[in-house]
Design a protein that fits this description.
The chain is mainly α and 184 residues long. The protein has helices at residues 3-14, 17-33, 45-68, 86-103, 107-118, 123-130, 134-153.
């Protein structure tokens, strides 16, 4: 019956929901223990109870102010504006564009780049792991990076251009240039 008004008074003074709940609980316990002190001549039960809640809340705010202290006048005040979210949005757009450009590369080039940049393997380790000649891994990595550069410069859309050379994917991947057998 008096819980909501008591909580409202405590919250307006403390500006902290958890602290206001504690203040109200302490006030109700105090009222329960000292109910004999209530004097109906001086006012209603509601007035008496809300006065106790008010006094407890003010005491608690003062106590917390003493332990927390005042801010250092030399420290700059916290900013009053929200953090700019454009940086996060731009990073997500860049990540999406990079993911799309990466997905457009032929599988052998994607594999070489993935193992090199995301798994942290050297080209020698990639060659050993995949059972592919070192020269082929070097070519795939180079062609993959060139393909990424071309796709990113074009905004990730490569629909009307020629597909990237699929180094190591077989003779159908070769352009008019002949590649030595060891570089595939």
């Amino acid at each position: 019956m008096y819980g909501s008004p008591a909580y409202g008074v405590a919250l307006r003074i403390t500006f902290d929901e958890a602290l206001a709940q504690d203040v109200v609980q302490d006030a109700f316990i105090s009222v329960w223990r000292h109910a004999a002190r209530f004097d109906p001549v001086r006012g209603s039960v509601k007035t008496w109870l809300l006065a106790i809640v008010h006094n407890r809340a003010v005491d608690e705010v003062r106590r917390r102010r003493e332990t927390e202290g005042f801010p250092d006048p030399e420290d700059p005040p916290p900013p009053l504006t929200r953090q700019d979210v454009w940086v996060e949005v731009a990073e997500r757009l860049d990540a999406t564009t990079l993911r799309e450009a990466f997905a457009g590369l032929p599988e052998p080039q994607r594999e070489a780049l993935w193992l090199a940049y995301y798994e942290g393997l050297t080209q020698e380790e990639i060659a050993s792991l995949t059972g592919t000649p070192l020269g082929t891994i070097k070519s795939r990595t180079r062609l993959g990076l060139l393909g990424l550069r071309r796709r990113l410069a074009a905004g990730g859309d490569q629909g009307d251009e020629q597909p990237d050379r699929q180094c190591g994917a077989g003779p159908e991947a070769d352009d008019a240039q002949a590649w030595p057998e060891g570089d595939r």
